[in-house]
Specification:
By secondary structure, this protein is an alpha/beta fold. Helices cover 35% and strands 15% of the residues. Strands 10-9-8-7-6-2-1-12-11 form a nine-stranded parallel β-sheet. Strands 3-5-4 form a three-stranded antiparallel β-sheet, with no helix packed on it. A hairpin with a 5-residue loop joins strand 4 and strand 5.
Length: 432
Amino acid sequence: MTMSPDQPSNAGAFLRAARPVSGAVPAPAVSGAVPAPAVSGAVPAPAVPGAVPAPAVPGAVPAPAAPTARPSLSLELFPPRPGRHVTQTWGALDRLLGTRPDFASVTYRPSFVTSGTSDLDSPGRPDGPSGSHSADTTDSTGNATGTRTHVHVRRERNPAEDVVSHVLSRSEVPLMAHLTCIGYRKDSVVEIVRHFLDMGVRRFLALRGDPPRGFAAEDVAGELPHADDLVRVIREVEADYFDDGARHLQVAVAAYPADIDHGTGIEVLAAKQAAGADLAITQVFYDPEDYLALRRAALYSGVTMPILPGIIPLTDLKRLTRLEALTGVCVPADLVRTLERSDGVAAAAAGIDATLTLASAVLDGGAPGVHLYTFNRVRPALDVISHLRLGGILNGSTPDTAVQREVRRDYLNATPGGDRGPSARMPGATRP
């Protein structure tokens, strides 16, 4: 679909397509439909407003009103880590699913295997086992040891599969499974995709993935070195699996708003679209202009798939700092100062303010929705979702300040040390 940078897109309806029963991705829900009752404790989504028809021309037969697509709201979930908190994490996942997002994605991280081989054992061989690459190891002085370390992916049951099974069996929320290709053989990826299809997955987020710590991406490139290679494999499996010539899957890819060189980023995004991707979800960013500039560049260059902004609740400075180390996207100095000066409820309120300001800006700029990186943290996610939905920010209307006060009061009542209230200013309250 082609989107004008000056008009809201209908991408929200595309993103909200419900998970099919028979395997095919159905058409978007009809505007104005009454949503199913929310799960206990969930934040209900408001009814989708109907579109206002254009004024009739004298003597002309009025055309039927087109549905107005509201922005989508989706969540990213993470598999529980082994340990004593695993039961608590499963409870958190259920509470997040209870908000009835338009879809939920589940992260996937492969298990890497490294093995050292002496150059005397494999003279002249630049690569390790099939599907892996290798790197020279060095000692503490930086000198080569004469041993090459081979890195590849070990195919085993992934914790993400447990979350996928849990969501599909206990929830009506459409699910998107993450897949990575770095270090994989093609036949292994085909096996994983078919396994997810057998489970009922019809949405995928195709990622290159990150190498293990201490290695460069080229050291573990495998047979599918880039995300567009993975997209093509998913589409090939789709064609073989369903064997009817129709599209049954949604395939999303990553986009990077904070990259300095949008030209190169758009070329990569265009290659992913050409391979069969029909949605992009962005990496974390903090400046709304980064997202808007990426979207303008994409449209100018013919990348027509929706670009969904990925936003993290900006409440935990330690987490943001760790994320900066992983992604290279710097946390703004003013946000760092704000969170450092605050603690407890004040810090949480300041972070929620910053999150809603960012979400409001990208939605005003035409974003098709918001994809929330939850890190399985329920309280910040629920607070952001409550403001986006009940506060009116998500549907573009002027927020209801009375509702916002209630949301803030509920947050204070649920937060230890809630005697210090958040600031009276509500981001988005001045939105037209």
